[in-house]
Amino acid sequence: MDAKVDSIINDVAIMGAGLAGLTAGQTLTAAGRAVEILESSDHVGGLATTMEHEGFRFDLGGHRFVTEDPSLEAYVRNILGDDCLTVPRSSKILLRQRYFDYPLRPLNAVFGFGAVTTARILADYVRERLRTRVFGRRAVSLEDWVIGHFGRTMFDLYFRDYSEKVWGINCSRIDQAWIAQRIQGLSLGAAIKKALLSRRGRDLPTLATHFLYPRLGIGQIAENLAAQIRPHNAIHTGTRVTRVNHSGATIDSVEVVQAGRRRVVAAGQFVSTIPLPILVSALRPHPPAKVMAAAARLRSRDLVTVAVMVNRPRVTEETWIYVPEKTIPFGRIHEPTNWSRCMAPEGESLLVTEYFCFRGDTVWNGSDAALAARTIDSLVRLDIIKRHEVIGHVVQRIANAYPLFEVGYSEDCRIIYTYLRRFSNLYTAGRGGMFRYYNMDHAMQAGMDAAHEILKAYQSKSAPTLAATAFAKASA
Ligand SMILES: Cc1cc2nc3c(=O)[nH]c(=O)nc-3n(C[C@H](O)[C@H](O)[C@H](O)COP(=O)(O)OP(=O)(O)OC[C@H]3O[C@@H](n4cnc5c(N)ncnc54)[C@H](O)[C@@H]3O)c2cc1C
Fold first, then answer.
1. Which ranges constitute the DSSP H helices of 403-439?
2. Closest by alpha carbon to 305, among 222, 375, 384?
3. Distance 400 CA to ligand 1 centre (A)
4. How far does residue 46's CA lie from ligand 1's centre (Å)?
5. How does pLDDT run across 273-330, given as a tens digit for each residue?
6. Could you give all domains of the chain from N- to C-terminal order, each with its CATH number?
7. 401 CA: nearest ligand 1 atom
8. C-alpha 429 – ligand 1 centre gap (Å)
């Protein structure tokens, strides 16, 4: 079939309508630019989407909004208007039928298992610190990093099973960057010191006490962004980018499949927020074999969520409950009505469980009925719900939920970024788009940065250099 070439009216074509793509689109639209947004799924929002089912609402895994940047917070508050709630955070780890604070409040964790385990944790930690001092080892994997900062007993008790559940690979193969980024600056020694000084250890890094949340679920951010874009520019859902055509140092057009028809979309500038390996494999002509091989090695972890509806107004007190034990098939639970009361009909509630998996494995391919039965059995076994309270369930499958940081991934990213830098009018942004462990704030900021660089380039009429800027940031 011949591809239809649309007339060249776009200043910018944006691949993907998640928060990075939409923030880029809204910023460019507000500046009066002609933009076309191309999204493969049938809705906007990407990972930050809220589903609706018979009066129940739930995110694809609960999404809280937190940022350290006051201007980004103001941007989100402005997008949400009166629908922006401030919600207290309270997360727990459920382990051996006991609840521990999450992120780990180390003193609570150290003393939670009684005197013998406490002594082992402390002795272990001291031994590891001495070893690190004497041998000066560099942490490569998640396992190295956690043992260096918390000791082996803490690693075995708290970190190993949960990390392996999330990533599906052994902790010695998970790059340390993920955990180091997540619990930055935290170590057992630092936590003990701080706890002794402050008594409560409340101001440890990673302990945000409140977060922003839209009244109708996280998807409201994307929907409101889209509502600001649509009067001026097109957002095409159900439109998959299949090819990215280039000549030398310039991207010329992208090819999409929309309602079974192939179409060519031309533009002056291109922003990609689609997963980095998909972008690389869509490039025509193909990049050199070394770049293709690097992209093929970058994998993602996928997610299945099972929402269980109950005829009880409230089940837990928590924002999230982390469930590391491998005997329980899911890794995390959240109760959306603790985030906003509008997430369920009056007098009812729901629990959303997250199964980390790979597309094509037994979880991903499991039938909805089997997944729901397994989830309900586990929730009953954990004494969180009673079987007779269940009034419904919904299963969702989410591809490319987490870029998978296997040891060696950063070298593959470097190879790809080095190649992509040649394109003067291609900008990458977002979590999958940059293959970074980005939360919503970072994804939105990256989309905004891409838009500002494009606007700057238009103003100066010079060839944009953002590609280099974005890639430099991504590899920093
Ligand atoms: C379970 C879970 C919980 C999370 N919780 C939080 C949280 O509490 N707080 C927080 O800040 N962040 C959280 N995040 C991270 C957050 O979801 C992301 O940072 C953010 O949504 C990423 O936005 P994005 O636009 O970069 O990517 P995406 O949302 O992945 O958007 C990319 C878009 O590109 C589209 N696409 C893919 N391929 C193509 C193609 N070929 N053609 C066209 N379109 C294509 C996709 O359909 C998607 O819509 C969580 C993520 C997960 C998975």
1. 409-420, 431-434
2. 375
3. 8
4. 5
5. 999 999 999 999 999 999 999 999 999 999 999 999 999 999 999 999 999 898 999 9
6. 4-48+218-298+406-475 (3.50.50.60), 87-91+300-403 (3.90.660.20), 104-198 (no CATH)
7. 53
8. 11
* pLDDT tens-digit map of 52-72: 999 999 999 999 999 999 999
Token couple for 92? 């727990």
What is the number of the ligand 1 atom nearest to the C-alpha of 63?
8
- Provide the whole-model pTM: 0.90
Q: Are 228 and 78 in contact (CB under 8 A)?
A: no
Contact 450, 464 (CB under 8 A): no
Distance of CA 297 from the midpoint of ligand 1 (Å)? 20
Q: Report DSSP letters for 173-187, one per residue.
A: GBBHHHHHHHTTT--
The Å distance, Cα 359 to ligand 1 centre, comes to 16
Tokens 């989410």 locate to 398
Task: Give the H/E segment covering residue 251.
Answer: strand 250-258
Q: Are strands 250-258 and 261-272 parallel, antiparallel or unpaired?
A: antiparallel
Distance CA 474, CA 476 (A): 6
For ligand 1, mutation pick of 19, 39, 43, 47 (most atoms within 8 Å of CB): 47
DSSP for 339-367 reads T-GGGS-TT-EEEEEEEEE-TTSHHHHS-
Residue type, 269: Q
Cβ < 6 A, ligand 1 pocket: 15-21, 38-41, 46-48, 61, 63-65, 240-241, 273-274, 278, 303, 354, 401-402, 430-433, 438-441, 443
User: Other CB atoms closer than 10 Å to residue 121's CB: what's the count?
Assistant: 24
